[in-house]
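Give me the 3D structure for Adenine phosphoribosyltransferase.
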Amino acid sequence: MSAPAALRELLLSRITDVPDHPQPGVVFKDITPLLADPVAFGALTDAFVDLCARHRVDKVVGLEARGFILAAPVAVRAAVGFVPVRKAGKLPGETLGQTYELEYGSAEIELHVDALAPGDRVLVIDDVLATGGTAEASLQLIRRAGAEVAGVAVLLELGFLAGRQRLEPGLKGAPLEALITL
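Predicted structure for Adenine phosphoribosyltransferase (182 residues):
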């Protein structure tokens, strides 16, 4: 799914490029101007709420950290639960963890063991799909918790980084929906 042209243009107009961040050669996609614009942020939230309704979700999972910002208002508007997936060691209490590979090492994400119930239909929300490692690990966590992946929704997909190709086997037929693909 791609956003309608007017929504796509509104959202793109509020995303800025920051060259050489966090390291030389990387162009960081900064969504903070979008978040500061209530019309653009509201339109983005509405688009994700529509996906919740279409996929009949029970909970939305937000991936640390910008995914939290996007997923929380979606959960409120869609009247579904919000579940944060965090970097290892950030959640109190008992957690499930999933390690995944990065370009130069590995990382781990966690969710609370009781955050998802067996059979919950879950939509994963994040700001950017780049290489797909964090999203792929989140799908594994969701299934280990006994929940069903209803789909993954992102504001922006960086197609040249092939995250979709990495993620598709783990989706097992669930949709990956990017409002904007570059």
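The longest helix spans residues 38-54. Let me know if you want a second pass.
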